[in-house]
Each structure stands twice: as C-alpha cells, then as structure tokens.
Amino acid sequence: MFRTNSIKHCRLLAQQAERSLQEQTHNLNAREAELRNADEKIAALETRIATVSAATQGDLDEMTALRTTISALDREKDALQAAVDEKTEKVVQLEEALYAKERSATELQRNVAELESAVE
What is the mean pLDDT of residues 80-105? Predict the structure, then answer.
C-alpha cells in the first residue's frame, strides 16, 4: 500500500510538473512572439530613421546650396549698387557741367547781343 501511495504521489507530481511545463512553454512561446513583434517594430523604426536621415541630409545639402546662392546674389547686388552709385555721381557731375555751360552760353549770348547793339 505504501508503494501504491508512492506511485500515486509520483503520478500526481508528474502531472503537476507536466502542467507546469506546459504553462512555462506557453509563456515562453508568448514571450518569443512578443520579442518577434518588438524586433519587427525596431526594424521598421530603423528603416524610418534611415529614410528621415536621408531626407534631412538632402534638406541640409539644399540649404547649403541656397546659402551659397544667396551669398553670390548679395555680392552681385553690392557690385550693382556700387555701379549705380558711380553712375549717379557721374550724372550729377554731368548735370552740373551742363548747367554751368548753359549759364555760360546764355551769358555769352547776352554779351554778343550787347556788343551787336553797341556796334550798331
């Protein structure tokens, strides 16, 4: 009878161990599935990071090119403004010279008229 009780006890322990093993196997499988899902999400995020990084680098390159273009345009604008300033100064000088010559011509015409009237 002791032996029968021992066998029953061993069978009960074996059944409990089997149930525990099944539960642990189920838990392990669930954890492995969670791990696979997490790995897939990580892979998707890494792909997204690579895409965003490439786009960001493209934007940085474009921004650098635009800054270079803006600098060149600023230099060209400064050169054009300097040329306009020079031309404006030249126009002012020419206008002053023209005004002085017109005054001289008017004065000479008046002198000629006076001399002609004095000669008559």
Answer: 97
